[in-house]
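Annotated sample (chain length 346).
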Amino acid sequence: MGGNRLSTYLDSFAPSHALTKLRTLEPMAADATRAAAIASVQFAGRGDDKAADGAATEAMRAVLSQLPGTGTVVIGEGEKDKAPMLFNGEEVGDGSSDLTIDIAVDPLECTDFCAAGLPGALTTIAFAEGGTMWSPGPGLYMEKLVVGPEAKEAIDLDDPPDRTVAHVAEALGKPVEELRVVVLDKPRHADLIEQLRGLGAAVSTPSDGDVGGALAALLSGGDADLLMGVGGTPEGVMTACAVRALGGGMKGRLAPQSDEEKEALADAGMEAERSLDVDEIVGGEAIFAATGVTGGPLVREPWDSDGETMTESIVIAPGKVQRIVEAVVGQPWAPPSNGAGAGDHS
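Output written by the structure step:
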């Protein structure tokens, strides 16, 4: 799981080295998602989403335990998925330096897709400067608008959908009929999807995976122009890290989906009605990384190359996007346990 590479990377730093620069952790972010992907792909198509998520979480945490400093999990697995590790507030790292960072994790985005052997499952993580990542407390869901840099001034959560679509289309210099919007296929979005299509926009409706949908709108050459709707807060905070790094546009607002969640937010003194800019969700330098598990338009699933396991990752840091195809050192190729072969493209 990249252990040799990670050890070499960590050994290259003397204790006095300037570890406070967040971008020095880009390799570790990639290693964390790569390890989680290799662990979880073994469960692709086996129908056990909890086993896949648990394997990804354990592998990611093992890498983060070697972080040269202290990382605090601000957005973790514990609140929403009741996981025993990488929960909100957990500290990771070896404490070997005064480096402090905030961490957001979704060790397996689209667990259902992985369990069903469908494209779209990713392992994801984001790092930000210590004390700069917004914590939604007990808020599990948030409303989001995400666009690329060209349309960053065109979005407002208080605008109705028709105005949002018109403003984004104008900013991008295209008619509404050429606009491509991602909205999760959830009952709560039925009216929104119908309205957007009535306006003439093309709407993609994945059943899960709004991180992937947000990146499709954010990245140059992506297959979407705009993400709209309500999704998870972990995904929202990680998306904000990528948006901030690339100068895109994002608005977010807590959107409780149950009376219990509303009461918990009220008890915590959280303002569910307030719209947040990307700088309020992550207020410092940030990086984002993802590795493919079951493939899709963003990153490829792990595959075999001459008996070695290869992975594809994307790392987003201030002003740059890296796509990394790499052999996992010391990890021979093994197909998923269901025998389907994650690297089989026939």
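Annotation: The radius of gyration is 19 Å.
Annotation: The longest strand covers residues 320-332.
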